[in-house]
Amino acid sequence: MKFFFFHLMPYADLDPDYDKTYATDWLLYPNSNYDPQKGAELYNRYLDEIEYADALGFDGVCVNEHHQTAYGLMPTPGVLAGALSRRTKTVKIAVLGRALPLLNNPLTVAEEYAILDNITRGRLVAGFVRGIGVEYHASGVNPTESHDRFHEAHDLILRAWTQPGPFPFEGKYYHFDYVNVWPRPYQQPHPPVWIPSQGSSETIRWASAKERRYVYLQTFSPVTALFRYMDLYREEARKSGYEASSDQLGWSITTYVAKTDDEALKEARPHIEFFVNKFLRMPMEMLLPPGYLSLSSMKGVAAAKASLGRKRTMEELIENGQFICGSPETVRRRLAEYQDRAGFNLLLPNLHFGTLPADLTRRNTELFAREVMPALRERLPTGAREKART
To answer: How far apart are CA 98 and CA 63, in angstroms?
Structure first.
């Protein structure tokens, strides 16, 4: 198993009573509530935490993209990736991802990623996402165009990386007389591409196609949805003519480790409940605007996200597999159980969440790196182990 340290960089000083006035901390919560002094401290603290993961032996670190929200302070993840590119030495840097349909010029991502890939001498993982539904409210992009814009932007970026320029590009949404990106990527023909998703069947089908075989990452879903979508990826891969590898599947899961189960539960409770009940609070019409998903995908994703509108307890999150919490032994056992059932070989533990303070974040990261990762690093899912033996 490979481990990528995941950080959302939330505005941890979010007013706990904001929801008495505002339905969500996305879009509607006034930015006058952002204190630049506190924000500056958080940015530097969070970068320190990500850099520490490099020193602890994680395989990679992750940044991501969200707009107009206290949930995550990374509207331009390339800036954070750039800051990390010179301070980290061995970890891969996964930008998960850039929301391609929101862009007026996808070539800026081709250029940005190529620069990062050169600076890190090939440590970049190129994440492409459609962006969750609320991002379309933030950007003013028509959500019914999401899939088509994503595919066209992706095709343009891949051609810019792999086809000698200059050449013209004439699409439905993007038009260029000259495509001639400098610099070219360090990794040839291009950096590895990862596709995070909430579970759109169209995205899974597209990512698993034989000509792409992109890594698919399931994010913030109950394990019942995780199992279903991982099975769907493998099924679609077979339809495309090959057997998907466990290295093509990854899971992002919020995790907390302490010396004992009781200690972990006690320490994590206020911060994980603040995370899901305050930071993740969002009306369904913002998360899933009309036209963003097909009807079949809408039903599946809406069912997985149905709990966003009500208060959730830590116990419910643990039972649903949306939070793993306990002693190193408990966390190791739970991860092994889910790995065998879902068949993933990439794990993206979110080791900071909500209002978790710096000291607990550091200890959580240390315990995970020193007492969880070593026991699982050589582990494969059940099916992959059986194939390896034969």
So the answer is: 10
How would CATH label the architecture of 2-389? Alpha-Beta Barrel (3.20)
DSSP structure string for 328-374: HHHHHHHHHHHHHHH---EEEEE---TT--HHHHHHHHHHIIIIIHH
pTM of the model: 0.94
Reported as half-sphere exposure (CB side, CA atoms, 13 A), residue 102 has a value of 22
R_g (Cα) of the chain, nearest Å: 20
Nearest-angstrom CA–CA distance, 147 and 154: 11
- The whole-angstrom separation of Cα 206 and Cα 337 is 28
What's the pLDDT tens digit per position in 104-158?
A: 999 999 999 999 999 999 999 999 999 999 999 999 999 999 999 999 999 999 9
Measure the CA–CA gap between 63 and 75, rounded to whole angstroms.
10
Other Cβ atoms within 10 Å of 121 Cβ, number: 10
